C-alpha cells in the first residue's frame, strides 16, 4: 500500500544570516520627525506568523542619488550608513513570536508609501507590497484598486508618529501583493 509523501515547506532559514542588529532602525535615534511603523503578519487562518522576515525600502530626505545603506564598510566589515546618525532608507526585521514587527523611519520623500518585501515559511517566492502612510494619497496603484482592496495597503495612523500596518498572507482581507514580471 502506498502512503502519501509528507508535505514540506521551505525554511524558515532567515534567522541565520539575514537579520542584523538594528535592522529596523532606519532613522537616526532622536530625530524629531521619526515615525514608528508596526504591525503583525498573519496567515490565512488569522494566526500570527512568528518567523517571517520583512524588508523595507524608501526614499528619504537627502537620499536621492546616494548609494544604498547595505554596503559593507571595507575597514570595519560592518554596514556603511548604520551609524545611528544617517538615514538609511532600508530596513530588515524579523517578526516576534506573536507575529509583531516594528521599524523606526522617516516619512518617505517623493512617494506616499514604504515598499515592503515579505519572506515567510511556505513561500517559494517572496511577496512585495506597499504600506501607504496617508489615506488621502493619490497614487496610480491605489486608484486602480477597489476600495476594499485599497484598504489593505493603508497603514492606520494611531498617533502623529505611530502607524500600524498588518499584513495578511491569505484570506478575505489578504493584503494586495504586487507581481513584478
Key terms for this structure?
11 strands; mainly beta; 181 residues; 5-stranded mixed sheet; 4-stranded antiparallel sheet; single chain
Structure description:
By secondary structure, the chain is mainly β. It contains three helices and eleven strands; from the N terminus they run H-E-E-E-E-E-E-E-E-H-H-E-E-E. Strands 1, 6, 9, 10 and 11 form a five-stranded mixed sheet that branches. Strands 5-2-7-8 form a four-stranded antiparallel sheet, with no helix packed on it. Strand 3 (71-72) and strand 4 (79-80) form a beta hairpin. The chain is globular, with a radius of gyration of 17 Å. The relative contact order is 0.24.
Poorly predicted ranges (pLDDT <50, ≥5 residues)?
Answer: none
Q: Main beta sheet, described?
A: 5 strands, mixed
Counting H and I runs of at least 4 residues, what is the number of helices? Answer: 3
Label the structural class.
Answer: mainly beta
Separation, N- and C-terminal Cα atoms: 43 Å
Percent in helix: under 10%
Amino acid at each position: 500500500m502506498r502512503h502519501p509523501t509528507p508535505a514540506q515547506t521551505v525554511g524558515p532559514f532567515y534567522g541565520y544570516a539575514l537579520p542584523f542588529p538594528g535592522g529596523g532602525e532606519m532613522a537616526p535615534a532622536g530625530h524629531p520627525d521619526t515615525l514608528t511603523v508596526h504591525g503583525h503578519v498573519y496567515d490565512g487562518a488569522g494566526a500570527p506568523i512568528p518567523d517571517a522576515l520583512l524588508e523595507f525600502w524608501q526614499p528619504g530626505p537627502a537620499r536621492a542619488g546616494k548609494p544604498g545603506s547595505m554596503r559593507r564598510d571595507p575597514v570595519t566589515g560592518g554596514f556603511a550608513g548604520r551609524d545611528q546618525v544617517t538615514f538609511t532608507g532600508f530596513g530588515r526585521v524579523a517578526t516576534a513570536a506573536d507575529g509583531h514587527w516594528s521599524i523606526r523611519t522617516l516619512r518617505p520623500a517623493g512617494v506616499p508609501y514604504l515598499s515592503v518585501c515579505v519572506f515567510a515559511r511556505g513561500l517559494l517566492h517572496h511577496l512585495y507590497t506597499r504600506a501607504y502612510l496617508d489615506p488621502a494619497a493619490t497614487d496610480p496603484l491605489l486608484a486602480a484598486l477597489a476600495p476594499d482592496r485599497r484598504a489593505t495597503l493603508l497603514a492606520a495612523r494611531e498617533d502623529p508618529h505611530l502607524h500600524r500596518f498588518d499584513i495578511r498572507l491569505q484570506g478575505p482581507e489578504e493584503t494586495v501583493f504586487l507581481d513584478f514580471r
